[in-house]
Specification:
With about 425 residues, the protein is α/β, with parallel strands linked by helices. It has helices spanning about 10-20, 35, 180-190, 210-230, 250-260, 330-335, 360-365, 375-390, 405-415; strands spanning about 85, 135-145, 150-160, 165-170, 195-200, 240-250, 265-270, 305-310, 340-345, 415-420. Helices cover about 20% and strands about 15% of the residues.
């Protein structure tokens, strides 16, 4: 267990921003065409129409999904990337290979299709909208903690279709607003998921500890279960409380993993460039600011998905900040995981490429720029997140080809991602 104090991200960001001699714009060009990445899986590449331009995802009409837009350039060479590898070591704990059917329970012994041998050729692309847009509603969770209590605003993305749906709780990064991840909520709603985005309290100095914030997240799970059983409310008749997933970016990714280690209800967990660093000025690892990797990964008994980057794993230059330090980044979670784990490194991305607005201000400006097109990074992340949920939460094993198979290999061959799998049956 790490016990020595580590210089935390929050304590550095204010001062380093004022000394941002090495800070750069967080958006940069790359030779990537989003139309090639977010392609129609039913058509050969030669038959795909050129993608529209712009950075905003389109609104699908009816059940027909429109290819998302991009602001990037030509397609890179197909031989630019390495081939993903598979670690076939047997998993431990209760995690399982992908379930089959919508009613599949966790802990099934169904085998992951080997490569794409058992996967239908025409799998819809989970990087594209899966159907019509749903709606967005707001609510608030009031916790009777302390003298004034704790209020947690909630943004809820709901699919157009009625009926109980699987639900994902997505947690924002440190000092970032849930609105910076709105495209994730809208996208997953088109695939039939209810997405709950809490706004957890926090501060640069002081504020609730990581342990407390993980407890708030567990309270959100309680709220979901109560809402599913209620006669009215934003979740009444809309969610399946037995199919819950947790996900998050940066600190939110750490909190999602920590809450999953503490609570048996999440069926899967997904981290988007999660950072395991403690908080507060020179805060050491302790019970209030625990390290999850490697210490708590053995307590996670469900499948794990991880997307990350290495641009901000290190930093060079005066006043430069490693926003996802190598000692605390996604690779550390992957190395310590004991259940089926899928890891995707987005080549050239930086820590804030995953946001809808990578130029979000103070806490985005300190991360050294990547070489990616953030619109492409977001769509790749949404592709892998959606495929992971489709396989392990909704029971649609045919989407395994986007996790390990022909569709994933396409992204690897383009040099867009380095992918690894571990602890598979």
């Amino acid at each position: 267990m790490r016990t020595s104090p580590r210089l935390p991200l929050p304590a550095l960001w204010l001062g380093l921003t004022l000394l941002s001699a090495c800070s750069e714009s967080t958006t940069s060009g790359t030779n990537v065409d989003a139309g090639e990445i977010i392609r129609d899986a039913h058509l050969p590449a030669a038959d795909i129409a050129p993608p529209p331009t712009g950075d905003a995802a389109p609104t699908p009409s009816g059940d027909a999904a429109t290819a998302p837009t991009a602001d990037a350039g030509p397609v890179p060479k197909a031989d630019a990337g390495p081939t993903p590898t598979v670690d076939a070591a047997a998993p431990t704990g209760d995690a399982a290979a992908p379930p089959t059917g919508d009613a599949a329970a966790p802990g099934t012994d169904a085998a992951m299709p080997p490569g794409d041998a058992q996967v239908p050729v025409e799998s819809p692309d989970p990087g594209q909208p899966g159907g019509p847009e749903g709606d967005v509603v707001n609510d608030r969770l009031d916790l009777p903690i302390g003298i004034l209590g704790v209020q947690i605003p909630l943004t809820i993305y709901r699919p157009a279709a009625a009926g109980p749906a699987p639900v994902l709780v997505f947690v924002h990064g440190f000092q970032l607003d849930p609105g910076l991840y709105a495209s994730y909520g809208r996208h997953l709603a088109t695939w039939g998921y209810v997405v709950v985005m809490p706004r957890l309290p926090g501060a640069v100095f002081g504020g609730p500890s990581h342990r407390e914030q993980a407890e708030y997240l567990v309270s959100v799970l309680d709220w979901i279960q109560a809402g599913a059983a209620a006669a009215e409310g934003p979740l009444a008749g809309r969610v399946d409380p037995d199919r819950i997933a947790l996900a998050g970016h940066s600190l939110g990714g750490k909190l999602a993993l920590l809450a999953t280690a503490n609570d048996p209800r999440p069926r899967v967990v997904f981290g988007v460039d999660p950072v395991d660093a403690p908080g507060g000025p020179l805060q050491p690892v302790n019970d209030d600011y625990p390290s999850v990797a490697p210490e708590r990964m053995g307590d996670i008994a469900v499948p794990v998905g991880l997307v990350g980057e290495t641009t901000n794993a290190t930093c060079q230059g005066f006043a430069c900040q490693a926003c996802a330090p190598e000692a605390d980044n996604f690779a550390q979670y992957a190395a310590a995981a004991v259940t089926p784990t899928f890891t995707f490194e987005i080549v050239g991305a930086n820590h804030v490429s995953f946001l809808d607005d990578p130029n979000c201000g103070l806490f985005c400006s300190v991360c050294s720029a990547g070489t990616d097109a953030p619109a492409v990074t977001r769509r790749l992340t949404q592709r892998y997140l959606t495929a992971f949920l489709q396989v392990y939460l909704a029971g649609h094993a045919e989407f395994a080809t986007f996790l390990q198979g022909e569709e994933l290999q396409h992204d690897v061959d383009l040099g867009l991602v380095v992918a690894t799998q571990a602890n598979l049956p």
